[in-house]
Write a structure and sequence with these properties.
This protein folds into two domains: 20-139, Phosphorylase Kinase, domain 1; 145-265, Transferase(Phosphotransferase) domain 1 (Transferase(Phosphotransferase), domain 1, Orthogonal Bundle), CATH 1.10.510. 38% of the residues lie in helices and 24% in strands. The protein has seven helices and 14 strands. It has helices spanning 38-47, 87-93, 97-118, 156-174, 210-229, 237-247, 254-265; strands at residues 20-23, 30-34, 53-60, 64-71, 74-81, 83-86, 125-129, 132-136, 139-140, 143-144, 176-177, 186-189, 192-195, 202-203. The strands form five sheets. The chain has a five-stranded antiparallel beta sheet with strand order 3-4-5-8-7, sandwiched between helices. A three-stranded antiparallel beta sheet has the order 1-2-6. It has a two-stranded antiparallel ribbon with strand order 9-10. Strand 7 and strand 8 form a beta hairpin. The radius of gyration is 20 Å and the shape is globular. It binds adenosine-5'-diphosphate and magnesium ion. Magnesium ion binds at residues 184-185, 197.
Length: 267
Amino acid sequence: MCPVEKFNPHKTSALKFKRERERDGRSGRSVAIREVTLSEARSDALEFGLATDIFMQLKSGKEASLYIASWRGHPIVLKAYRFWHTSHASKKRGWFAPARMEALAAKEYDVLMAAFRAGMPVPTPIGRVANYLTMRFIGDGLVPAPRLKDMVIEKPESVFEQIVDDYLTMYSVAHYVHGDLSPYNLLWWRGKAWFIDMPQAYAVDTWCNMKRVIFLLERDIRNIVAYFEKYGLIANVEEIVDRFLGCYVPENQMRAVHLYWSKRSRP
Ligand SMILES: Nc1ncnc2c1ncn2[C@@H]1O[C@H](COP(=O)(O)OP(=O)(O)O)[C@@H](O)[C@H]1O
Ligand SMILES: [Mg+2]
């Protein structure tokens, strides 16, 4: 396993501020994009000891690029967070963006670790330096596992139960809501759904905004219930949310939960 490094002020940042000015097609505003190229990701990952080789790009999303890498012959995934925001923000807070990318990578690493320790099916986190994190490769050989969205499931009922049960573990043991749970962020591998992509997870603790927790929980569960409707499965979102709230609510947050229940019961 490679060493994990978090916010080490003595380490030079991986972000070398290669900014390009581009036009945002939709809004017409100029946006600053900092792309991580394959060769840059390779040299950073090797320098940081996160991987011993990078094979190919897996995907380039809005905020992150993913690569299939290797650690001494074993396939792993390298996720690189990129700079991306509007020129308005960059004028005011341009210096802040690299810290934000590091924070996203650190957050995803921490949440993955908490979920993994709680026993959830997630890619085991391996390391994190600056805006890069590495994790277990979910797939066979160098072929990544498909997303649940692209699969036809044979036993939808038991898969639905597995997802809800594992999400309940995330909520009640790791104390996080995923915040972006959908069939896009579940991989189908070895007969079960694996949870990925959790930089926007939200901690459910003494300091949280419980209203926000319930909002995210409802949205995540609704996405899963909606997906399984195409298999003819009918499930009640509110009942599932209540099951979660019945398992865990931080002591000082009960008031917000009662408020939610009383609002819901009004016609
Ligand atoms: N650990 C992994 N193993 C295999 N494939 C992965 C892994 N993590 C992500 N992927 C693939 O990369 C895609 C994008 O990853 P994700 O973390 O969801 O980033 P994004 O923020 O771009 O959606 C996923 O839909 C999945 O196909
Ligand atoms: Mg995703």
